Amino acid sequence: MAGQIRATVWNEFRHEKVHDSVKAVYPDGIHRTIADFLSAEPDIEVKTATLDEPEHGLTEEVLASTDVLLWWGHMAHHEVKDEIVERVHARVMKGMGLIALHSGHFSKIFRKLTGCTANLKWREAGEKERLWVVLPGHPIAAGVGPYFEIPHTEMYGEFFDIPQPDELVFISWFEGGEVFRSGVCYHRGAGKVFYFRPGHETFPIYQHPDVQRVIVNGVRWAAQREVANLAFGNPDPLEDIG
Ligand code: ZN
To answer: What's the domain count of the chain?
Structure first.
């Protein structure tokens, strides 16, 4: 793909304003931390958008100039307007990548794209997580080795109500015994969708080098600038068929 990848980091940006424990980890917002490490990559340019901006910061213009949209939401999924969800969905169908992070599994856009409840088990005990690469060679897993660990995190456990992934890249093991499909890929319309589990707001997850590497890899994987318009309907034949 020629030129810069245009990433937009969307964050609901509520926990950081009302919870001191989250503000301490992400004083400028989770979106700022993610935007900063993405911006350090020479081939990625980044803008941010948040829930309380007009149109949630996701105007037609912003989406038209976005190759990959990253989505972090948790306490205010229901406040995301359906018309904006429809707009994001239409853009994914035309080829924009979407990366849903952590509690973004419950976002309207991820549930619309997957058609499932995306429900799961969770426990907030600060336990250890080990993420295993189960699709070596997948571009999203490049450079992280056979596994990596996050010392303290929130647990997400199976059953995770998602469709069978097109590509399953990571499975997590948790200290408490559960497992979880932590990195899953889908193709929807002309767009690529990646769900990546780590990112609970009270832990410095987005400062973890392997988590950062996977998100950078995910942006590169999901980005595609040259997508032909999809043709549907009732075409004339290409050959003479009488
Ligand atoms: Zn969480």
So the answer is: 1
Q: Which of 78, 72, 172 is nearest to 120 (CA)?
A: 172
What is the CA(32)–ligand 1 centre distance, in A?
Answer: 18
Dist. CA 117–CA 69, nearest whole Å: 21
Q: How confident is the model at residue 226, as a pLDDT?
A: 79
Cα of 75 from ligand 1 centre, angstroms: 10
**Residue 196 counted as domain residue:** yes
Q: Ligand 1 centre and the CA of 200: distance in Å?
A: 4
Residue 106 is part of which domain span? 5-115+183-222
- Ligand 1 center–CA 199 separation, angstroms: 7
What pLDDT digit, counting tens, does each position of 130-158 carry? Answer: 999 999 999 999 999 999 999 999 999 99
Q: Please name which of 135, 186, 180 lies closest in space to residue 165, comparing C-alpha atoms.
A: 186
* pLDDT at 2 > cutoff 60: no
